[in-house]
């Protein structure tokens, strides 16, 4: 329970990877600020289970992070409830699959806002709290798409490459403040975000569902396996340990060998 007394804010923690990261940090004793969008009753079940399983406080703060005011209100709510954010996990993200000449500009705007700008704002607002307590961890869920592109994902690939650049810059600025900043870059993880892009990928590439899974999603991953959300949670826990105190500015791949090729 090496994180007892610390507070972790994990964006997009009502589902998928963010939920696994929050659960893993709670297991080590961190209080959790959970945030995301979805069915309130389902979210309350998830929140209560995490709190009960690990004996920590878990506060759900609803926030639409495509708007700057949403991020600002979220950080303020975390500060009011727990006095500090010691661990910031910028994880909330969305995807849209379409050829560049058909890509809806409003989708571009919302993907950049959620996958990139919200992380900038959250860092900007949480770093003073970390500096005040002399310790901090910033963990950004980037993607293999922060290192390599795929067709039809212009906004997502642009946002994730930029998120990796933001992470490096923040790491350098905080290098002597006992605050680290790193990206975790998964390949494909079986979550709603991946499942929901299958119909558009079928349309864009004229493939069946099975062909999308085998020939698109897993084709680039030499292990031919999806990354497990729990494994990403375990990596986030490691990044909070003292053993990771000199790991900063990194972009750590968990992508079945995708970007090794
Ligand atoms: P998910 O769809 O399961 O979860 C996304 C989370 O973001 C949810 O909690 C959702 O409520 C939240 N969210 C969505 N729109 C929001 C908004 N406007 N404001 C606030 N929160 C919002 O997806 P996931 O697969 O767990 O993805 C989490 C992160 O991991 C994303 O940044 C994604 O890009 C990244 N990622 C996913 C994969 C994958 O294969 N699933 C691979 C690499 C990177």
Give the overall silhouette: globular
**So what's the oligomer here?**
single chain
Please give the domain count: 2
Strand order of the largest sheet: 3-2-1-4-5-6-7
Strand and helix order: EHEHEHEHEHEHHHE
Secondary structure: helix percent: 40-55%
Give the class from helix and strand content and strand pairing: alpha/beta
On the 0 to 100 scale, the average pLDDT is: 96
CATH-assigned homologous superfamily of the largest domain: NAD(P)-binding Rossmann-like Domain
Largest sheet report: 7 strands, parallel
Number of helices: 8
* CATH architecture assignment name of the largest domain: 3-Layer(aba) Sandwich
**How much of the polypeptide forms β-strand, as a percent range?**
5-15%
Bound molecules: nicotinamide-adenine-dinucleotide
Q: CATH fold name of the largest domain, please?
A: Rossmann fold
How far the N terminus sits from the C terminus, by CA atoms, comes to 38 Å
List the uncertain runs. none
The CATH class assignment of the largest domain is Alpha Beta
The count of β-strands is: 7
Rounded radius of gyration (Å):
18 Å
């Amino acid at each position: 329970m090496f994180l007892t007394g610390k507070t972790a804010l994990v964006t997009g923690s009502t589902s998928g990877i963010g939920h696994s990261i929050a659960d893993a940090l709670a297991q080590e004793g961190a209080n959790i600020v959970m945030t995301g969008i979805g069915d309130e009753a389902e979210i309350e079940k998830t929140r209560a289970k995490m709190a009960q399983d690990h004996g920590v406080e878990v506060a759900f703060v609803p926030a639409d992070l495509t708007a700057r005011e949403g991020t600002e209100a979220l950080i303020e709510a975390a500060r009011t409830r727990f006095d500090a954010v010691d661990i910031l996990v910028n994880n909330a993200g969305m995807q849209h699959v379409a050829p560049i000449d058909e890509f809806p500009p409003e989708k571009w705007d919302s993907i950049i806002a959620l996958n990139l700008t919200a992380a900038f704002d959250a860092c900007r607002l949480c770093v003073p709290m970390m500096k005040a307590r002399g310790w901090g961890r910033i963990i950004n869920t980037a993607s293999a798409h922060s290192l390599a592109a795929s067709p039809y994902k212009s906004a997502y690939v642009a946002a994730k490459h930029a998120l990796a650049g933001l992470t490096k810059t923040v790491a350098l600025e905080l290098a002597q403040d006992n605050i680290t900043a790193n990206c975790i870059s998964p390949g494909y993880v079986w979550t709603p975000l991946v499942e929901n892009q299958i119909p558009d990928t079928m349309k864009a590439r004229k493939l069946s569902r099975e062909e999308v899974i085998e020939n698109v999603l897993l084709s680039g991953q030499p292990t031919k396996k999806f990354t497990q959300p729990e494994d990403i949670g375990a990596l986030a826990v490691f990044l909070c340990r003292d053993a990771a105190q000199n790991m900063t500015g990194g972009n750590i791949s968990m992508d079945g060998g995708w970007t090794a090729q």
